[in-house]
C-alpha cells in the first residue's frame, strides 16, 4: 500500500487549476451571494481530471433590526456583519438551521442523477447544524471557539476525498432557504491529458435521516434486561446506505440526538453485500459484516471518547452538548467492497428499542451510472433544537412619555423597512454579480482545459 506522500516523489502528467469565489473586480468582496430559493454553479469543468480539494466557509444571517450602516453603502467591502450586536451598529443573528437548508450537489459526466446530494453541513461533518473543529483523513472543520457548538455558527470546511471525472464535473450550491447565503469557496483540481482508466470509480455521497427511529421501547432504559431481545434479522435497523452497482463503501458520519437521557449506543452494525441478498427479496443471516455495538463500529469502546483521528472519531461529544453527538468512521485503508449491492445499517439501540433522531452521510465510490438521488424535503431536514423561552411583551406607559414612545416605535418601524429594502437590493446586486462570476469561472476553466490540450498535443 502506497503512502499518500509517495505521490510527491513522482512526476505526473497533469495540470493544476482552481475555481473559486474571488472578487473578479480585484476588490476584497471574495464571496458569492446565492439568493433565497436559487442555485449557483460553483464549478463546471471539462475532463478528464480530478478534484483534489474543496474548501468552503459561509455565513447566513437574519436581520432583526435596522442597522446604522446602509447596506448599499457597504456593498463593495468585506463583510461588516461581524460587528458585535452590543455596539448598536447592527442587529443580526445567524440562521441556526442553514447548514441543512443548503445542499451541495455534484454531478459527473452529464449523468442524469447527481452523485452527491447532501445538506452542506452534513457533507463536511457539521451535524445538527453545530460546527466543531475536528481533523480526519478526508474531512476537517475549523471553527473559532466562540462559533463552535452553536446552531448556525461559522466554520471553515475542507474535503480531501479524491473525485475523478471523465467528461465533466459540475458542482452546485442549492439554497432552499428563505435567506440568501454568502459563500466563499476554493475547488482545486487537476486535468489529465489521457482518459481515465476503465476501472475508475466515482465519488458518491448520500444523506439519510429518521426522526424518530422506529424504536419499540424508548420508554425502557438502555442496557436494562428488558431491552435485551434477540435480533436475528436486522430488518428494523437504521440504514446508512443501500445502493446497487460496483464499488466500495468508504465510511460515514452519524449525528444522533438522544432523547432518553441514558446512552444511545449498543446497536450492532450490519452490512449485507452481494449474495447476502437472496432471490426472493430477503437477506441471508448473518450478514457478511456483523459488529458488536455502535460505539465499536466507530472504533471507540465503553461509550464515545472526545478524540478525532484519521479514520474515526467524535466531532461532537455528548459532554460538549448534552444529548447531541456526531461521530465518523472512514474505511480508507479497509474499504468495504461490493460487486452488485450493499446495505450498511445499524441498530438504533440494542434490538432497535430507541426512538432517537439519527441522520447520516454515507460516502462511497462506484462505477457509473450514479444511482437515483433524492433528499428529504427541507422541513424534514431541520435539526431538533431546544425551544427558546418566549420574549417578554413590551410594558405599557402612560402620560407624555407614552406619546414619545409611540413616535419612536413608528420611527423604528420606518427605518427597519427602509433598511430591509436596501438589504434586498444589495442581495439582488450581489446575486447578479455572483452569477456573472460563475459564468466567467466556467469560461476560464474551459480556456485552461483548451490550453492544456494544445500543450499536450504539441
TrEMBL record:
Alphabetical list of Pfam families matching this protein: DUF2961
InterPro entries (alphabetical): DUF2961 (IPR021345)
Transmembrane segments: none
Record's compositionally biased regions (Basic and acidic residues): 427-439
Region (Disordered): 1-29, 427-458
Record-given protein name: DUF2961 domain-containing protein
Organism from which the protein derives: Streptomyces peucetius
Lineage per the UniProt record: Bacteria, Bacillati, Actinomycetota, Actinomycetes, Kitasatosporales
Amino acid at each position: 500500500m502506497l503512502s499518500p506522500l509517495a505521490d510527491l516523489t513522482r512526476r505526473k502528467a497533469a495540470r493544476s487549476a482552481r475555481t473559486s469565489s474571488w472578487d473578479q473586480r480585484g476588490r476584497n468582496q471574495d464571496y458569492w451571494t446565492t439568493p433565497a430559493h436559487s442555485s449557483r454553479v460553483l464549478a463546471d469543468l471539462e475532463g478528464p481530471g480530478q478534484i483534489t480539494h474543496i474548501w468552503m466557509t459561509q455565513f447566513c444571517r437574519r436581520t432583526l433590526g435596522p442597522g446604522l450602516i446602509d447596506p448599499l453603502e457597504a456593498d463593495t467591502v468585506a463583510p461588516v456583519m461581524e460587528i458585535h450586536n452590543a455596539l448598536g451598529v447592527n442587529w443580526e443573528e445567524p440562521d441556526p438551521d442553514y447548514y441543512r437548508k443548503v445542499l451541495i450537489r455534484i454531478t459527473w459526466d452529464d449523468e442524469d442523477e447527481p452523485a452527491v446530494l447532501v445538506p452542506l453541513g452534513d457533507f463536511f461533518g457539521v451535524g445538527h447544524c453545530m460546527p466543531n473543529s475536528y481533523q480526519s483523513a478526508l474531512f476537517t472543520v475549523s471553527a473559532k471557539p466562540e462559533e463552535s457548538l452553536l446552531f448556525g455558527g461559522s466554520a471553515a470546511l475542507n474535503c480531501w476525498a479524491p473525485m475523478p471525472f471523465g467528461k465533466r464535473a459540475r458542482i452546485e450550491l442549492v439554497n432552499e432557504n428563505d435567506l440568501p447565503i454568502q459563500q466563499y469557496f476554493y475547488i482545486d483540481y487537476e486535468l489529465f491529458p489521457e482518459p481515465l482508466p476503465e476501472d475508475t470509480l466515482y465519488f458518491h455521497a448520500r444523506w439519510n435521516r429518521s426522526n424518530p427511529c422506529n424504536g419499540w421501547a424508548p420508554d425502557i432504559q438502555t442496557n436494562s434486561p428488558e431491552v435485551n431481545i434477540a435480533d436475528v434479522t436486522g430488518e428494523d435497523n437504521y440504514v446508512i446506505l443501500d445502493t446497487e452497482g460496483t464499488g466500495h463503501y468508504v465510511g460515514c458520519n452519524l449525528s444522533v440526538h438522544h432523547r432518553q437521557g441514558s446512552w444511545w449506543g449498543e446497536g450492532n452494525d450490519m452490512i449485507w453485500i452481494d449474495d447476502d441478498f437472496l432471490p426472493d427479496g430477503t437477506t441471508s443471516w448473518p450478514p457478511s459484516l456483523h459488529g458488536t455495538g455502535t460505539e465499536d463500529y466507530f472504533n471507540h469502546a465503553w461509550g464515545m471518547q472526545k478524540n478525532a483521528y484519521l479514520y474515526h472519531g467524535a466531532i461532537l461529544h455528548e459532554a460538549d452538548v448534552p444529548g447531541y453527538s456526531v461521530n465518523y468512521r472512514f474505511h480508507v485503508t479497509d474499504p468495504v467492497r461490493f460487486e452488485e449491492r450493499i446495505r450498511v445499517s445499524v441498530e438504533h439501540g440494542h434490538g432497535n428499542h430507541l426512538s432517537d433522531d439519527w441522520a447520516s452521510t454515507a460516502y462511497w465510490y462506484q462505477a457509473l451510472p450514479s444511482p437515483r438521488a433524492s433528499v428529504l424535503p427541507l422541513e424534514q431536514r431541520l435539526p431538533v433544537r431546544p425551544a427558546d423561552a418566549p420574549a417578554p411583551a413590551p410594558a405599557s406607559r402612560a402620560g407624555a412619555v407614552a406619546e414619545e414612545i409611540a413616535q419612536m416605535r413608528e420611527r423604528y418601524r420606518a427605518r427597519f423597512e427602509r433598511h430591509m429594502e436596501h438589504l434586498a437590493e444589495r442581495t439582488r446586486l450581489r446575486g447578479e454579480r455572483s452569477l456573472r462570476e460563475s459564468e466567467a469561472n466556467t469560461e476560464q476553466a474551459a480556456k485552461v482545459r483548451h490550453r492544456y490540450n494544445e500543450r499536450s498535443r504539441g
